Amino acid sequence: MTTPPQVGDQAPDFTLPNEAGEPVSLSQFRGKRVILYFYPKDDTPGCTSQACGFRDAYPQIEEQNAVVIGISPDSTKSHTKFKTKHNLPFILLADEEHRVAEAYGVWGEKSMMGKKYMGIIRSHFVIDEEGRIVQAEVKVSPADSVKRALAALGVKP
């Protein structure tokens, strides 16, 4: 597993398809702040809670000149269903080959009921207008991810 980028590091750039299959690059958002979050799977309880937390705070996030980008290994089709079902106002990107998750050091060994497997380690990175990491939270709970990312932007709960 690659070491996750740290505060002060330049965020690794990437291009992935969004829920509509259109390519989106992190560098397109220079001049804005970005909450980049990695989650394991569309429409599971924790991932839905995290996504809906960002959705509910989205007006305040936008007031801070920021956007939210969610990344999981799910397909664009799965993202479309998830986004529509929960009325998510932000971009979801499909990292089916987990290259971006690996570049951010959040693809690793997990275990459930004694079974070990590889997957996304729930994480988020807050990136400033110049593309530098200002907050890196790896192995964070869904609720803490939303609270900590919002606090890093200066959004009051």
Automatic annotation (TrEMBL):
Its EC number is 1.11.1.24. Residues 1-22 are annotated as: Disordered. Coiled coil: none annotated. One of its GO terms (biological process) is cell redox homeostasis. Belongs to the peroxiredoxin family. BCP/PrxQ subfamily. Monomer. Thiol-specific peroxidase that catalyzes the reduction of hydrogen peroxide and organic hydroperoxides to water and alcohols, respectively. Plays a role in cell protection against oxidative stress by detoxifying peroxides and as sensor of hydrogen peroxide-mediated signaling events. This is thioredoxin-dependent peroxiredoxin. It comes from Chloroflexus aggregans (strain MD-66 / DSM 9485).
